[in-house]
Design goal:
globular; disordered C terminus; DNA-binding; mainly alpha; Endonuclease Iii, domain 2; Endonuclease III, domain 1; 2 domains
Length: about 230
DNA sequence: GACCAGGCACATC
DNA sequence: GATGTGCATGGT
């Protein structure tokens, strides 16, 4: 473990938190709703997901039992605004099948299981990849897992804390090897990265208003940039 | 009208 | 193992 990386990751977290404050993720009423949202938000703007969730709520479909009983084709029509509605309907049904098979549709029972086992199980469900699995673990089940997304890769490679070619697991390891496993902090950290990514770091490498501006000029980053 | 958004599975080379 | 493609809506 590198002390400099640890310092940088902690400093960036602090800077983002000071700038944006607590993000209060995940925006959902129940843990089950978090899981539904995690699948619906794949490659999709959150506003569209809210519309789909609104439809599900209006039709009283936001329970494991109701989603178990509804056919995928019918479910797809309710979640249209979230995009990819046919594949996402199947993915929700795939999760529900697993959820009943392993935990009888009981979220508390699921939450009582070990993180590593849960992650393995979630990844075996067709339609749940690393980011969705980790979002479920962290935001629905309160497991200390760091969620990586496209923003994380873009922002932290620009700040030379990861390599641009690093895969999901490599990036996740970087964070988890250098930060204490803290559910509340991991929760905020990922949400803050998304917040930053939405507002800054879109196209230009560095913009003047970015809260991380002078962090990227740290001695550590300078030394990395010099080498490359 | 192009481009993007809190991915993933599958085909092809 | 790397790279390409389909899936689809709604906002900017």
């Amino acid at each position: 473990m590198s002390q400099r990386v640890k310092k940088s990751l902690e400093k960036i977290y602090q800077r983002l938190f000071d700038q944006f404050g607590p993000q209060r993720w995940w925006p959902a009423k129940t843990r089950f709703e978090v899981i539904v949202g995690a699948i619906l938000t794949q490659n999709t703007n959150w506003g569209n997901v809210e519309k789909a969730i609104g439809n599900l709520r209006a039709h009283r479909l936001l329970t494991p039992r109701r989603l178990k009983d509804i056919p995928a084709e019918k479910l797809a029509q309710h979640i249209r605004p979230a995009g990819y509605f046919n594949v996402k309907a199947k993915r929700l049904k795939n999760f529900i099948d697993y959820f009943y098979k392993e935990y009888a549709g009981d979220i508390s029972r699921m939450a009582g299981q070990k993180t590593e086992l849960l992650r393995e199980q979630l990844l075996s469900v067709s339609g749940i990849g690393p980011e969705t699995a980790d979002s479920i673990l962290l935001y629905a089940l309160d497991k200390p897992i760091f969620v990586v997304d496209a923003y994380t890769k873009r922002i932290f490679s620009r700040h030379a804390l990861i390599r641009s070619g690093d895969d999901y697991h490599a990036v996740q390891k970087k964070f988890m090897n250098h930060l204490k496993p803290d559910v509340k902090m991991f929760n905020e950290y990922h949400a803050l990265v998304v917040r930053l990514g939405k507002n800054f770091c879109r196209t230009t490498p560095r913009c003047a208003a970015c809260p991380l501006n002078n962090i990227s000029r740290s001695a550590y980053v300078r030394s990395i940039l010099k080498k490359s």
